Amino acid sequence: MCIGAAAFLIGVIRRRIGGRVFLLLGIWSATYGAMQMSQQPTLLSISPHWFQICAPYANTAMTYLIVVVGALCFRELSRGGVRFAMQIIALLGLTIAVGGVWLYVRTGMPDKLMGINNLLAACLLIELTAVVASPTLSKKYLVFADRGILATGTLLFALEALFVNLSRPLGFNSPRIFDHLGFAVLLSSFGYGGLQLVLSNERRLLSIEHELIIAREIQTSILPERLPASENLRVAAIYRPMTAVAGDFYEFLATDTERQGFLVADVSGHGVPAALIASMIKIAVQMVEPCANDPSAVLRGLNRALAGQLRGQLVSAGYLWLDTAGRKGLYSAAGHPPLLRWHNGTLESIVSNGLLFGVNPQCNDYPACTFPIEPGDRFLLYTDGVTEPENAEGQSFGDFRLEQVMRENRGHSPAQLSERILSELQNWQPASLIQQDDITVIVIDVL
After folding, report:
1. Domain CATH number, residue 132
2. Nearest to 340 by CA among 384, 382, 401
3. How far, in Å, CA of 438 to CA of 427, rounded?
4. Mind listing the pLDDT tens digit for each residue in 368-384?
């Protein structure tokens, strides 16, 4: 029972990386121990009356169910047809257990179905022995490569069981310690197999984490290394992926120090698939850079370049072009959240949307909005990861609160405003929730 408790604790700690086999091993071992304890006259004699009444019923139930737990345990170490067979054996064992306990309650005879249960246990042991004894079957049906310990433990237990079941009908009663030792060897071999499974999963997770770190470094390298070098603009950008890699992307396109383009894109979904498409946007941007001063042409070019690569995913984008020499701004978007503009003491929302990238490769309708710019103007480009986070009541942060934050911090620098937006988002969401989406924010002040 102590070994069962320890195995169960390991299973709880490692439940996400194959620890379920330890949970079942813990139940298996503790059940066997509880069966032995419930049969001890000394323990029963000092137990409460209710325990003495319940002990025979509990012992009968555990005797039937130990086959079910064993089948489920081996199921965690197997795959393919053997895994399915273990499910069938566990289901049959559960049915027999329910029937056996019910008959015990009705007739007072605990072993009505014990013969069928023993036959099922024998089938389980034969299948287990056949799989672990054969290198070919082990390679095909076990989830780990080193079968030696499991095979040794299973064969020793099978030999002990065979010896006991053949010798007792002949009048030779072997000491019960052999039963306990045989079961202990079997449990230990299963524990070794479970340990191999957990370690294998941990190594795989570490490998994935290492690859994600490299992927994040690569993705970071495709983002701008520095902010635009412009005497007439002050720019701040914040990029916060939800996972190691993200589907958000931003880029700066400049023709000179007085003319600058700002692109923000958001790929549907999260993680590696979205990040791969975000890296494609980087390549596509290089193709449309010659027409950086025409937002409509930029978005048309990106849509055509990405159309055959998205594989059903969609991309929203917003592109802002600022010409500080000509005091003119242009904005166009593809299904993207509106551009926010602080102008002459008024906050306005600029919407000029065409279709999302990936809907129609031939879409050329990306209208551009033209407006004058003046010193003191402020622009905010962002992805929907800013407005969609929900609080404990399920309410989204929304455009209204974002605009409110922008109004309340109009005297702060772009960098301070960006940090303030992130702070407000963190305060809005419950502390128990992780970030719900990728977040990108670009704030531009006209000096």
Report:
1. 1.20.1070
2. 382
3. 17
4. 999 999 999 999 999 99
